[in-house]
UniProtKB/TrEMBL annotation:
<feature type="transmembrane region" description="Helical">
    <location>
        <begin position="185"/>
        <end position="206"/>
    </location>
</feature>
<keyword id="KW-0812">Transmembrane</keyword>
<feature type="transmembrane region" description="Helical">
    <location>
        <begin position="300"/>
        <end position="323"/>
    </location>
</feature>
<keyword id="KW-0472">Membrane</keyword>
<feature type="transmembrane region" description="Helical">
    <location>
        <begin position="343"/>
        <end position="370"/>
    </location>
</feature>
<feature type="transmembrane region" description="Helical">
    <location>
        <begin position="247"/>
        <end position="268"/>
    </location>
</feature>
<dbReference type="GO" id="GO:0055085">
    <property type="term" value="P:transmembrane transport"/>
</dbReference>
<dbReference type="Pfam" id="PF01594">
    <property type="entry name" value="AI-2E_transport"/>
</dbReference>
<feature type="transmembrane region" description="Helical">
    <location>
        <begin position="274"/>
        <end position="293"/>
    </location>
</feature>
<protein>
    <recommendedName>
        <fullName>ATP synthase F0, A subunit</fullName>
    </recommendedName>
</protein>
<keyword id="KW-0813">Transport</keyword>
<dbReference type="InterPro" id="IPR002549">
    <property type="entry name" value="AI-2E-like"/>
</dbReference>
<dbReference type="GO" id="GO:0005886">
    <property type="term" value="C:plasma membrane"/>
</dbReference>
<feature type="transmembrane region" description="Helical">
    <location>
        <begin position="87"/>
        <end position="112"/>
    </location>
</feature>
<comment type="similarity">
    <text>Belongs to the autoinducer-2 exporter (AI-2E) (TC 2.A.86) family.</text>
</comment>
<keyword id="KW-1003">Cell membrane</keyword>
<feature type="transmembrane region" description="Helical">
    <location>
        <begin position="7"/>
        <end position="29"/>
    </location>
</feature>
């Protein structure tokens, strides 16, 4: 009876635990809007600090190299000087700040004039571009009068509808658009302020990262003990290295792709070379879908100039994506994540759906960490049960013999 009571007691505890977990999950989903709103408020409040954390994370490798290099030079010239380390850190911090300001300023000076010029050209060229596109369609379809009549009729109908929308919807709501534009300008100013504060936060974090790391380790070991503490520290180091290698590598890869695209467009005399190359380079940070996300607005822009040019660019983007995916990307990133292609695609779709563009950027390293953690946990529990952790033993498996633990393959 005692054994049965113990079994019933365990089943009861399990049932209660399941009910409690189900209630907690349902409560979380029912309050998801409130939780999301609260998280959004917290993130917007500390956004400048987050900017600083991201900047410090990206500039940390540069800071470490410059600091070590300057300290080595100072130590060789002044062997007995005790403050060479502090001055090396100061110079490295200043160098990181100058590099960051230079990069931001260079991007602004490249993008803004080109963007203004492109918008001006598009506005001036739009009527002729629409007419050229219509003539081009007529030239293609002149051999098939029925199809020509259908396509051109629909094309003219769409043009008339766009004109109607412009006169009946756009013009009466100009005041609303101006208010929205003013709000956008204020948001842009807020981003500028966050970037400036973020730079200040970055300087503090770069100089304090060793101290903060040691304090975090001390807290972990004090709460978790030596064995679990070692596991946590190892995992934290793996996560840091994973994000650092992937994101920094992806940025370098995207810069190379943007430069290659720029030279190609200049060589064959395509318009908007600088603007489109910046768009292609920036969106290339997003794995898998990035080149296509950048290509769509670029193709639309080129379509107003020449449909043939737009088609050439579309073919070029496909070629460039293959070169990046098979040659440039693997050379720079290597086997950073170790994820199969299916899980790369799955993670981008999942995190992109949940968190948008930012989710797509962090999807691959984040899922690689989750994938590795699940693999390690499953291997740990398999070993505790006396089973083989290697996946090859489960290929074509029918069942495992309960007594002998022998792996019986499918016939």
């Amino acid at each position: 009876m005692k054994d049965k009571n113990e079994i019933y007691f365990k089943w009861g505890i399990t049932a209660v635990a399941v009910i409690v977990i189900a209630l907690v999950i349902s409560l979380i989903f029912s309050k998801l809007g409130i939780i999301a709103s609260a998280l959004k408020t917290v993130v917007s409040t500390v956004s400048s600090v987050l900017y600083g954390v991201v900047m410090a994370f990206l500039m940390a490798p540069v800071y470490d190299r410059i600091s070590a290099w300057v300290e080595e030079i100072l130590s060789s010239f002044f062997p007995k000087w005790k403050k060479s380390g502090k001055w090396a850190k100061f110079i490295a911090t200043l160098a990181c700040l100058i590099i960051l300001i230079f990069v931001i300023f260079a991007l602004i000076m490249m993008i803004i004039p080109e963007l203004v010029n492109s918008i001006t050209n598009v506005i001036g060229y739009a009527p002729d571009g629409m007419s050229n596109l219509e003539n081009w369609l007529k030239d293609i379809l002149n051999k098939n009068p029925d199809l020509e009549k259908l396509v051109i009729g629909n094309y003219q109908d769409i043009s008339e509808r766009i004109s109607d929308i412009a006169t009946t919807t756009v013009l009466p709501n100009v005041n609303t658009y101006i208010k929205n534009l003013s709000s956008g300008v204020m948001n842009a100013l807020g981003v500028v302020v966050n970037i400036i504060i973020g730079m200040m936060v970055m300087m503090y974090l770069l100089n304090m990262k060793t101290t903060l790391s040691s304090q975090a380790k001390k807290i972990v070991y004090s709460l978790a003990g030596v064995k679990i503490g070692n596991e946590i520290v190892t995992e934290a180091r793996y996560i840091k290295n994973m994000f650092e290698k992937f994101i920094v590598g992806k940025i370098i890869d995207s810069i190379i792709i943007g430069i290659i695209n720029y030279f190609f467009m200049v060589i064959i005399h395509m318009p908007y070379a600088l603007l489109i190359s910046v768009v292609v380079g920036v969106t290339n940070v997003i794995p898998f879908f990035g080149p296509f996300i950048g290509a769509i607005p670029s193709i639309v822009l080129l379509l107003l100039v020449s449909p043939v040019t737009a088609l050439q660019f579309a073919v070029w983007i496909l070629v460039l994506q293959q070169v990046d995916g098979n040659i440039i990307g693997p050379k720079i990133l290597g086997q950073t994540t170790g994820l199969p292609s299916f899980w790369v695609l799955f993670s981008i779709l999942l995190f992109g759906g949940l968190f948008g563009i930012v989710g797509m950027i962090i999807a691959v390293p984040t899922w690689a960490i989750i994938y590795r953690s699940i693999s390690r946990l499953s291997e740990h529990f398999l070993k505790k049960k006396g089973l083989e952790p290697d996946s090859k033993h489960y290929m074509d498996l029918d069942y495992i013999d309960e007594e002998s633990k022998k792996y019986i393959k499918l016939e």
